[in-house]
Amino acid sequence: MDLALFYYLLLGFAVLMYVVLDGFDLGLGILYPWFRSEGERDHMMRSISHVWDGNETWLVFGGVVLFAAFPAAYAGILSTMYTPIIIMLIGLIFRGVAFEYRFKSHRSKPWWDKSFFLGSAVATFCQGTILGAVVQGVEAGQQGALDWLSPFSVFTGFALMVGYALLACCYLVMKSRDQIMARAAHLGRKLVLTIMVILVIVSLWTLYANVEIRARWFDGINFLLLLPLPLLSGLFGWLLYRDLDGEPHETRPFWLAVGLFILGFAGLVVGLFPYLIPHQMTLWQASAPDSSLRFLLPGIFIFLPLICAYTLWGYRIFSGKVEDFEEGY
Amino acid sequence: MELDAAILSRIQFAFTISFHIIFPAITIGLATAIAIWEGLWLKTRNPVYFQLAKFWIKPFAITFGMGVVSGIVLSYEFGTNFSRFSELVGPVLGPLLAYEVLTAFFLEAGFLGVMLFGWQRVGEKLHYFATCVVALGTWISSFWIIAANSWMQTPAGYEIVDGRFEVASWMEVIFNPSMPYRLAHMLLAAMLTATFVIGGVSAWYLRKNRDQAFARKGLSMALWAALVLAPVQAMVGDFHGLNVKEHQPIKVAAMEGIWPEKETGAPLLLFAVPDMEAETNHFEIRIPKLASLILTHELDGELQGLKSVPADERPYVPLVFYSFRIMVGLGMLMIGAALWGLWLRRRGGRFESRPFLLLMTLMIPAGVISTLAGWYVAEVGRQPWLVHGLVRTMEVVTPLPAERVLFSLTLFVLTYSLLFCVYLYFMAKLVRKGPPDMARLEQHMIGVNAPGFALAWVKKLQHEVVED
Question: In this predicted complex, what is the ipTM?
């Protein structure tokens, strides 16, 4: 198989893993204003304090795969998206350190709550904005000040916040009990409706604004082949909405939400392939020489399965509901 | 003064990477120490070892957290601020960093959760395994990042195809000429950094007459470690210096403050004020012929000086020169402290001698400072090159508008200054709080039969009763 294409898929896998794993993680921060008591916030943070670091590692992995396999795209995208990336990194810093300091603080605890909420919200918004700007196709290499900031990218910024918050609600349904669980389910239902509307708007907006993506979808038989994507999304949304009702199902909502993310991501890739920077740079134009791509292969085939295995093991050790007593180091 | 985006980008990278290295420098050694204590506890069942492990895991956790968040920044900063560099050398450095993530970062993150939060969830052997894996992860991570950095110092195994670097031999890229020396030097530096943090904090407890058994064990082990590590580090540093002289003679010239094109029997400058304009030093305090002796092992050995290359191929000499003296000076101080400790051990009273305990307390940051100084020697000394002899730093910076870099730099300076104060505050808070007492440790004992587990079980039962 074409090596560059393999790395394109690997990059997609890394991004998807990041979005799902850090998604519920960042989403919990975004949900903080809806859970106001200290006990609830302790509980929410405790449910992810053992995994947030691993989840964020997928962001680093995505970054270095882009760097190693598509250096030209890494250079082009990162330098063009300079400001949102820097702000995202700062956001991630503030929410990351909150994990360590919040549980060790007394007087400053409200500040760490703010740090966790704002950091998560800002980082998510920036990620959504970057995504929107890339889809829209910002001139790479031309470092105009606010190119990345457009109505569309601002909309995708907020859209991603809603998406992550939905993942987080489903995660809470799985990891908590009683009141928190009920509140998360209730909130989750509203978010499902919102995200379905957002998916429709983003899809139509993209089709309207982008001729190439429109051609991809409506060219001959393509539409029929791609029809399962929107249909399945609708089905998942409906199932999710139903599962969160009444006595919510514990684990299925989370997996349905993950399914929604996968479908949305697939829709995105269908539209953009084979471009890494739309209209400008395909994955083959950006790819590193074969010597670099081949060198990394054994590492990926040996370590990636191992990583998945021990990550899963880690989640299993902490599986089940979160207990509200000190269990830490 | 006109703002220059390239200069600002370089300042920003220097600032963010300097901030970052503080934390791994501490955690690499601390993780190793915690693994050693946990192992000793399992072997001897001496509760002091358990207490040491349980106490130090807290500073370890917050330091590790700081390392993680400041490290993520770096993996993106190559692209944001040095886009041309990324495109040019991505095929060489990218895979090395990818291997670092695959073999180290995920490993650390995957087992850190169990190490920090899994005491009641897994058996003690499995927990020990998790601790060892985290420690191993920090070492593996050093391996790859040092390989990448060393390649930029002494590039090998590459060919240039269509103006872009391609790799001819990965073995030569990874095990490039300076890599083994730099790796050994850095790992020893990290071990020494943790050693002096542990020794210094233990000495502080002894000065305050607190937690005697705990502090004595900590200080005693730290002193043994320093006694071995500090002299070995001096030797490795010497070998490393010879390696630098071979591959980057101008860096050595800047370290030693040697200006003439060739100098035989060069003196060792204990102090001087290098003057780049006049191409000479002022206020020299010198030991004749010693620099030649150290670097060539001959009294009249010949050394290459700064003037042997044009001015635009020289680094900023004063920073290299002073940093080198700070690093070596602190290294000597470490050896001195270790020897003083040994002498007091023989004579009795290493836990009582006030001046000795004070010195150890003051030396808590010695490792961090000398590590930073050492990196300034290595990195500033390589300038004006980013890849030595091949890629000039100024030519591969992203052509960003200056205001934008100024904005991000300001954000980083504000954020990091704030966080550094917070970090010191919480470290001090943890140290003042002191080690967990034995009764509390009983509660935390790992394993299914331990009280901690029973506690969890009872709480769970209560929960279920309430629900019904």
Answer: 0.91
DSSP string, B79-144: HHH-HHHHHHHHHHHHHHHHHHIIIIIHHHHHHHHHHHH-TTTS-HHHHHHHHHHHHHHHHHHHHH
Look up residue B308 and give its DSSP letter: G
Q: Across residues B147-168, what is the average pLDDT? A: 91
Q: If you ran DSSP here, which 8-state letter would residue B394 be given?
A: G
Count of C-beta atoms within a 10 Å radius of residue A156:
27
Interchain pair A291, B91: CB under 8 A: yes
Considering the entire predicted model, what is its pTM?
A: 0.91
Banded model confidence at residue B448, pLDDT cuts 50, 70, 90: very low
- d(CA B85, CA B80) in angstroms, rounded, equals 10
Structure token digits, residue A66: 């882009």
Sign of CA dihedral B411, B416, B421, B422: positive
E strand or H helix that includes residue B270 = strand B268-275
Phi–psi pair at B176, nearest 5 degrees: -70, 165
Nearest to B95 by CA among A65, A221, A178, A120: A65
**Ramachandran quadrant class, A225 (left: phi over 0; alpha: psi -120 to 50; beta: rest):** alpha
Residues of B in contact with A50 (CB under 8 A): 112-114, 116-118
B81 in contact with chain A, both atoms CB, cutoff 8 A: yes
* Rg of chain A (C-alpha set): 20
Subunit contact A75:B400, Cβ cutoff 8 A = no
Give the CA-trace dihedral at A206, A209, A214, A215, to 10 degrees. Answer: -150
Q: What is the arithmetic mean of pLDDT over B188-207?
A: 96
Tell me which residues of chain B, numbers 349 to 388, contact chain A at a CB-CB cutoff of 8 Å.
Answer: none
| DSSP 8-class letter at B283 | E
Task: Give the burial string for A68-100 (b: 16+ CB within 10 Å, else e).
Answer: bbbbbbbbbbbbbbbbbbbbbbbbbbbbbbbbb
Q: Do A74 and B86 touch (CB under 8 A)?
A: yes
Name the least confident of B117-131, B179-193, B222-236: B117-131
**What percent of chain B is predicted at pLDDT more than 70?**
93
A325 contacts in chain B (CB < 8 Å):
455-456, 459
Q: Which residues in chain A show pLDDT less than 50?
A: none
Q: Kindly report the average pLDDT of chain B as a whole number.
A: 89
CA-derived radius of gyration, chain B? 25
Task: Report CB contact under 8 Å: B103, A317.
Answer: no
Residue with tokens 């998360």: A184
Q: Please judge whether A74 and B90 are an interchain contact, meaning their C-beta atoms are less than 8 angstroms apart.
A: yes
The pLDDT of residue B420: 95
Give the single-character DSSP code of A34: G
| Gap between the Cα atoms of B117 and B132, Å rounded | 15
> What letter would DSSP give residue B286?
E
d(CA B54, CA B48): 10
B465 pLDDT exceeds 70? no
Identity of the residue numbered B232: V
**Of A85, A1, A203, A249, nearest in space to B73 by CA:** A85
Q: With 0-12 CB in 10 A as exposed, 13-18 as middle and 19+ as buried, what is A194?
A: middle
In angstroms, the CA B349 to CA B343 distance is: 10
Question: How many whole angstroms separate alpha carbon A32 and alpha carbon A184?
Answer: 11
SS3 per-residue string spanning A57-105:
HHHHHHHHHHHHHCHHHHHHHHHHCHHHHHHHHHHHHHHHHHHHHHCCC
CA A275 – CA A127 distance, rounded (Å): 19
Q: Pairing between strand B262-264 and B302-304?
A: antiparallel
DSSP B336-385: HHHHHHHHHHHHS-TTT-HHHHHHHHHTTTHHHHHHHHHHHHHHHTTTTE
